[in-house]
Amino acid sequence: MYRILIADDEGIMLYSLQTMIQKNLGGECEVYTAKTGRAVVDMAQSLRPDIIFMDIQMPGMNGIEAMQAIRMENKTVLFIVITAYSKFDYAKEAIEIGVFDFLTKPVNKDNFLRVIKRAMAQVDVEKNNQMANLRIREKLDTVVPIMESGFINYLMLQTGGAESTYYNYKELLDIEEETAYVILIQFGESYENGVLTNPVGMSMRSQKFYPELRDIVKEHFNCIIGAVMANKVIVMVPDQTDGMEYEERIKIIGQARNLLHSLEARIDAKFRIGIGRTCRIDELNESYQEAFRAIQEGEGRVVHVGDMPLRGEYEGEYPIDNEQLIFQWVIKGDIEAVREQASIFFDWMVNNYSEYMDSIRLKVLELIMRAEMDAFLNGGLNYGFLYRKDYLSEVQNSNNYDEIRSWWLKKITDITKHMANRKKAQSENIVSKAIRYIEENYRKDISLDDVSREVNINPYYFSKRFKEETGVNFIDYLTGIRINKAKELLEDPALSIKEICTMSGYSDPNYFSRIFKKIENITPSDYREKRRI
Asked: Is 275 exposed, middle or buried (CB count within 10 Å of its CB: 0-12, 13-18, 19+)?
């Protein structure tokens, strides 16, 4: 069925055209009529007609104005203009609107039927094109995720060769960049003590929310998305940025945080996001390993590997997770946790290699030296050339596994204590430096980003550390500094409120007064008067 709307202020014209359609094309058309420009606009919005016969001269809104309004909402409707005037009077406007044809009053029946049939044929063409495009889009919606997943798998697993495959994927997915970074999205049922729970169950459920996840990620990043692997999804973000400078890193972290909020708002799950550095696309596995490490070892829900210390990798059949936890707890300065993991690791060595005491001695010595190096790289220890002068003899003189265990646990505990003490001092130093910067620059329009840049730490981590050390957030601390300074300045009667406002770091006196009253429960002027008494 074709929906046809006839707009004319002459009732006899409406009846005549409607009758011709019903007698000659009655089984194919639904016909509606309108007598004013406003009425035809309203009806076009609700009916979505295929064809509109429009009289130019109508009361109120004329035909040209009505067509312009309708075209803004309906790009495919065919307009056929009916007029008693020369079409040259309004040809320019009609061409801009995209008028299909013209009919001059009085309307000839044969001409009318010829034009309407031609318009109906054009509607058929447009609808067929729309259906074809829809089918193509539906196929693409099915094929593109498969192609993207295939490319991600190829990049993660390829071991060289097949260079043509790499370029074929890039061409098919319209990727012009030569570099990219990985965002690794991990999900679970809940987030407890820094861990996502029920990964297996969520992996099963992910098949239902995966299409929604893809849509959300695409809204935040121009990217290629892999399939679900366990409870993780690899996202490749093509990026031409050389390296990963501070500003770029902070921007990406901010986008990722917004992504996490969107995911949790629309999907019944909890998420963590790890981000690797930019690298060549054909070496993307490096960025993936960094993103994986960020999720495994990083603190927080969104972690960029640039905010973490570097370390080596492990291979072979070996309790890697256990060993990683030892170094993780050393860096965090958690003595109880590191002793627990160190004991588990030692038991594994004895249970599997009890006849190789020298190898166990060597491994214990290796791990202690690696733990010290990690602590050194993270500011937990200072280096001294003779610091380890007794290590070799002490380990060699340990005659049984109890003695080796005792030495191992004592050394790993000492390193962790150093790390805990230095970590506390380092955090205090960062906050102290930030406070000094605030006190020196409170008159300026400074922000959390400005201060975090000064101490060279991610704003989100800095904000967390600052509140942990000071007990208040950054903006409240800055406000306190400014208001206290304003109180000092109010003691000087020679200074106006406006001058004090500027000297305290505020540009708007009204805003300054509101903040002052909020903190002190009194206006600056009243505070000054009260101090004079």
From this structure: buried
φ, ψ dihedrals at 175, nearest 5°: -105, 115
With contact defined as beta carbons under 8 Å apart, do 119 and 80 qualify?
yes
- pTM here is 0.43
* DSSP alpha helix (H) spans, 320-400: 320-332, 335-353, 357-377, 391-396
Quote the CA–CA distance of 315 and 278 in Å, as a whole number.
24
- What is the greatest pairwise CA distance in the chain? 117
What type of residue is 189? E
- In degrees rounded to 5, what are phi and psi of residue 31? -115, 135
- Here the tokens at position 351 are 């249970």
Residue 296 and residue 291: Cα distance in Å, rounded?
A: 9
Instruction: From 395, 420, 404, 400, select the one nearest 330 (Cα to Cα).
Output: 420
* DSSP annotation string for 398-411: --SHHHHHHHHHHH
Closest CA to 112 of 100, 104, 121: 104
CA distance 106 to 111: 11
Give the pLDDT means over successive 10-residue stretches in the chain (533 positions): 88 89 85 90 90 86 88 88 67 73 85 90 86 69 80 71 72 87 92 80 83 93 89 90 75 94 93 91 86 86 82 61 82 87 91 90 91 77 81 90 93 88 67 87 87 75 79 90 92 90 90 90 89 66
| C-alpha span between 249 and 244 (Å, rounded) | 6
Residue 293 β-bridge partners: none
CA distances to 18, 145, 165, 223, 333 from 151, rounded to whole Å, are 58, 10, 9, 12, 41
CB-based contact 412:342 (threshold 8 Å) = yes
């959390």: which residue's tokens? 448
C-alpha span between 119 and 125 (Å, rounded):
10
Using DSSP's 3-state secondary structure scheme, residue 387 falls into coil
